[in-house]
Amino acid sequence: QINTEQGLIEVRGLHANVYARSRSGDISFRGIRGLVDVETGGGNIEGQLNKAPAGSQQRVATQTGTIILGLVDELNAALTLATSGVFATDFSIHIDPQPGQEPNKTARAEIGKPEANIEVVSKRGEIRLLRRLGFRPA
């Protein structure tokens, strides 16, 4: 568990679950072999998600920041997204307007088999889902 008021949280190559919270700092993660549950108030989040364990729940959230996620085609997860900002994605998503609410739109995507659930929320920031290649050892 990692908590900070303003500082950057950066997690790389951890073979465990990540639980990180920041009031206003940015959060960055990659190479995680475990579940991801990260949230910041005013900071941005940038990370990479690998294949999700079947039945797992993961969460990436910020109040006003941008979220950029690199995702593999073998993610095997159903994603629920919500923002009043912009969705930019390399994957197909279905967007549902939520007039008069904040966030004012939600979206759904399935990447691979929908065996796990991942929630991605930014009340006002942009959400970007980028396709990336999975690591393949030589």
Structural features, described:
The protein is mainly β. The protein has one domain. The protein has no helices and 14 strands. The protein has strands spanning 2-4, 9-12, 18-22, 27-30, 36-40, 45-49, 57-62, 67-71, 77-83, 87-89, 94-97, 105-111, 116-122, 127-131. The strands form two sheets. It has an eight-stranded mixed beta sheet with strand order 1-3-5-7-13-9-12-11, with no helix packed on it. Strands 2-4-6-8-14-10 form a six-stranded parallel beta sheet, with no helix packed on it. A hairpin with a 7-residue loop joins β11 and β12 (105-111). The chain is globular. The chain starts with a strand and ends in a 7-residue tail after the last strand. The model has no long low-confidence stretch (mean pLDDT 94).
Distance separating the two termini: 33 Å
Taken in chain order, the helices and strands follow as: EEEEEEEEEEEEEE
Main-sheet strand order equals: 1-3-5-7-13-9-12-11
Overall pLDDT score: 94
Considering DSSP H and I runs of 4 or more, what fraction of the residues is helical? under 10%
Domain module tally: 1
Q: Low-confidence stretches at least 5 residues in length (pLDDT < 50)? A: none
Give the tags.
single chain, about 140 residues, mainly beta, eight-stranded mixed beta sheet, six-stranded parallel beta sheet
